């Protein structure tokens, strides 16, 4: 699913094309599963005539602020995407964003803006959520999120304190949105690979050196991914991401080390055992504290399927501007 870098790319897309434009008309699909807590006609009325003043993000949540009234929030779920007409859309390995027709297939919200700019939010699997809130930053789910690794990475000393309280497997900790907002499956795997930490190691059993590396890469992986607009062709060749979806039978990272796959925290996990050796002496038992092999329930907007990833066709050119902080206060 879209993770921090992909949602930030969507925020930058909106910021680059839609800010300070008046909404001339809005059309909202009659889908009570995706459009949550407000009718489609009431949301249309709320949007019509407003001017978009800010595009904000924390973790995997994006919201639009206007010159008056409440904000509109978007959680992308498994297949949510923002599309601007005439601008190349992001593409993912597990689903394709429709950009050949307008409105795009599976659209949920269409907005026609001054200057002949058209914006749409689409979602084929219907796990996305569109909500209305007066002050998203001050209320759940945003207020319940942990630090955003791109926007509010804590100092190393504070980070050590947070890690020391965690007895769970380190990958489970990283993907807990109340710990680090926006980290999903591929980001967590990449961070741990770069830090040379095994995903099943117990968090509070990591060495000081491991925690320092984890702190560095937990910020650096999202930063580098966002710097290139989440365009995977521009990710470093040394990244696990570049090789984990290889069509060959035995994918390897640079240097020929084999990538293996197991299940951690209920998610397919890529790990390179030659470079990510187990270090904790008392590993968490499988199935405990969010460990391996657990059943998953449909939790709607908060349900993540992070095995999807952006393909090389995702646009970078239109994401180079307006890269300021996504979190609005």
Please provide a brief summary of the model.
By secondary structure, the chain is α+β, with helices and mostly antiparallel strands. It has helices at 4-18, 40-47, 156-164, 170-175, 185-195, 208-227, 241-244, and strands spanning 23-28, 52-58, 61-66, 71-75, 80-84, 107-113, 117-123, 129-133, 260-264, 267-271. The chain has 7 helices and 10 strands.
**CATH topology of the largest domain, anyone?**
N-terminal domain of MutM-like DNA repair proteins
Relative strand content: 15-25%
**Estimated radius of gyration:** 20 Å
Low-confidence stretches: 283-325
Structural class: alpha+beta
Which CATH C-level class of the largest domain is it?
Answer: Alpha Beta
Give the N-to-C terminal Cα separation. Answer: 26 Å
Helix/strand order: HEHEEEEEEEHHHHHEE
Give the overall pLDDT as a whole number. 86
**CATH architecture field of the largest domain:** Alpha-Beta Barrel
CATH homologous superfamily grouping of the largest domain? MutM-like, N-terminal
How do the strands of the widest beta sheet line up side by side? 1-6-7-5
Q: What share of the residues lie within helices?
A: 10-25%
Indicate the overall shape. Answer: globular
Structure summary, number of beta strands = 10
Largest sheet: 4 strands, antiparallel
Number of helices: 7
Number of domains: 2
Organism: Symbiochloris irregularis
Region (Disordered): 273-329
Keywords: DNA damage, DNA repair, DNA-binding, Glycosidase, Hydrolase, Lyase, Multifunctional enzyme
Domain Formamidopyrimidine-DNA glycosylase catalytic: 2-128
